[in-house]
Amino acid sequence: MKKRTIALTLCVCLLMGLFTGCGKTKDGQTSAKTRDDLVVILPNDFTTLDPQMLPASADINFCANIFDGLVEVDPDTKEIKPSLAESWDISDDGMSYTFHLKKGVKFHNGDEMKASDVVYTCKRFAEQAWMQFASFMIQDSEAVDDYTVKINLKYPYANFLGEISYMYVTSEKYMNEAGDKAAKNPIGTGAYKFVKWDVSQQIVLEANKDYFAGAPSIKKLTFKIIPDSNTAFVALEKGEADLNFNVSAVDYNQAKENPDLETDEVVGNSYYAANFNSDRVDEKVRQALAYAIDKEAVNVLVNEGQGVVTDIPLEKGQEGYADKSEYTTYAYDVEKSKKLLAEAGAKDLKLDFFYGESTANGKLAQALQSMFSEVGVTLELKPVETGTWWQMFGDGDYDMSRGGYPMEDVNTDAPYFDMYHKDGTFNVSRINDPDINNLLEQARVEMDADKRDKMYVEVQKIIMEKAYVIPLYFNLSTVVYNPALKNVKAIHNQKYIYKNMSWKE
């Protein structure tokens, strides 16, 4: 399971000395003609910049600036395209992938990237249990020659290329020489070189003029760490920063009315759900309580309306997506909920709701408690420390909890298997459904995309029919930025490719 990055606090009194000015014209617009830098606000600091030790998806996205993978996701088509590998071959049985590396690619210290570095990287990934694809997919790897790598799998895996788009290649020589220091002074092949890291304050990167895909237009990236969303927005308004992901609903609406700011929103790949422990709460009760949830009200109470209410945990374009008319869904209906509870003989039902302590989780818990009371069900709220929640989740000692998962654009298998298979590492609902298990095991090795998609649709139909998971909303990723900035485009939630950005002339 991936650990979550803990936000570090930053004293407001440091603000005045924290920023470098961007410069403004008389009309308030930032002058871009003389600029070759970019200031980005981040809500959290990192614990490491070692790409094989990253604890959260936000960290992985950040490291995409410093490192490259063998392949990458095209921001426009969302298809896999070459990166460090110029091409690859797949064996007839799908058990091995042979990658042909680009020649002359240099790490930031000047050393040429070779096949041995890729083999080293594969091995390091395999040692990290939470990196799913490495631990359960990769059997071994070998350097055929300096520019050819063969990766052997334990079994055919349809989404292998999508998974290794996150496998950022590190230098074997540098990592061995630097040891623990590498986590604070990373060296990759990416479009930007690491300059410095002032913990809790900023990270500075500079353009890699020798980047194999061409030097980026923006020569310097400064990432300011500002946990407080109000402070962050003020910095953006003053022109002390150019791009901000940490935007409250109020500030985002205000930014929309500001001609000196540009706004954009992307439906996040993370969805949030109410999860019943299927070992302790039977099917009809789960269905009944699904009808008791007013999702629109939940979105307002938890997200200030800044979320996208959903009946299914998938966005259009993802594998397994079908029109919601094909699924059993649960529109808010108090009377239907009461009827099903009566049929289930669930009079005076009491359930507990365990959740990791946070403002959002607390708001959700209170909302569900109020809604369930309307149908005669008592929900006892049990806030616990995050570590305790993980332990309880592992033991199955709860009736309900909050769940969710980032649904990847290029690989549906990882979240599906994680959440719904009996052996999944984030199976909050404790699902052990033979039909689901079989479908997921078949889909994992099915190379035909259409056949695989139909299997995932069937999985979703079972999930929704039996109310194992009650999807609530997708997070809405909002961004506010300097309107003089071009190509502000997300691959998915908060993964922006800075090497593609530039200033307008």
TrEMBL record:
Protein name in UniProt: ABC transporter substrate-binding protein
Any one GO MF annotation of this record: peptide transmembrane transporter activity
Keywords: Signal, Transport
Compartment(s) of residence: Cell membrane
Signal peptide positions on this chain: 1-23
A Pfam family per the record: SBP_bac_5
PANTHER family registered for this protein in UniProt: OLIGOPEPTIDE-BINDING PROTEIN APPA (PTHR30290:SF9), PERIPLASMIC BINDING COMPONENT OF ABC TRANSPORTER (PTHR30290)
GO cellular component terms listed in the entry, alphabetical order: ATP-binding cassette (ABC) transporter complex; periplasmic space
Recorded superkingdom: Bacteria
Protein family according to the UniProt entry: Belongs to the bacterial solute-binding protein 5 family.
Ranges of residues in domain Solute-binding protein family: 79-424
Gene Ontology biological process terms in this record: peptide transport
Family annotation (SUPFAM superfamilies): Periplasmic binding protein-like II (SSF53850)
